[in-house]
Here is the input.
Amino acid sequence: MSYSVFLDPLLPLPIWIGLLVICALASGLGLLRGLRGWAWRMAAFLLLLGALLNPQLLREDRILKPDIVLLLKDQTASNRLPGRIARLEAAETVLEQTLQRQFGAEVRKISIEDRKEEGTALFAALRDALAQEPAGQIAAVIALSDGQVHDRPLPGFSFPAPFHMLLTGEKDEFDRKLEIKNTPAFAILGESVTVTLKIEESGAVTRADPRADVFISVDGAPPTQFNLPVGTEVDVELSALHGGENIFEFRVEPLAGEVSE
Here is the structure.
């Protein structure tokens, strides 16, 4: 609780200043001529001028609102690998207890799920969460993720508070994946179609061979093996075995110890 004095003059300020000047001149003239009672007249005039200022005593009661921390939890497929979900839950528990007990903050938990063809849309989830909270209370944004984020902030987006990310992976983790860059919608019997493949590796990969084996089978038949370079897009010629639907299965030789093995 605090008190303050607020002035709301009943007259325009220039007029009030003019009256104050007249009061000062009249009082000075009375003093010079030795008139009796001039001090009382000046006091009464000053009291009147003070009343015209319309002073008001304000009492201000403030209610402190708690800080809000947004806790983004990446629950997409890549963050549900063995070990990562346990680290996420442990970090979530420690953060929530620390923020509430030591800082009195309110923790808002936002789960990020897989979106079709969008992957981990972390910033879209953050944008939706920020729209529901008062910007002045946002103290921090904390993301618990493996770091694989597939969207980015929109132009003009600004963070209302510091942004932190706690990675659930290990620094020496690595992985290999096979990307299919294009898939023909149909094929003509007796003619081949072109499929573009790319082997990508991420993390602390240690290997001597810059190539890897890719196995392609059709309708469960024994696979055909291709030895392809890593990190380069390669066109592979494939043919349909029969009319109707042909199901192709693509598989890349895994790295020993990779996270998605």
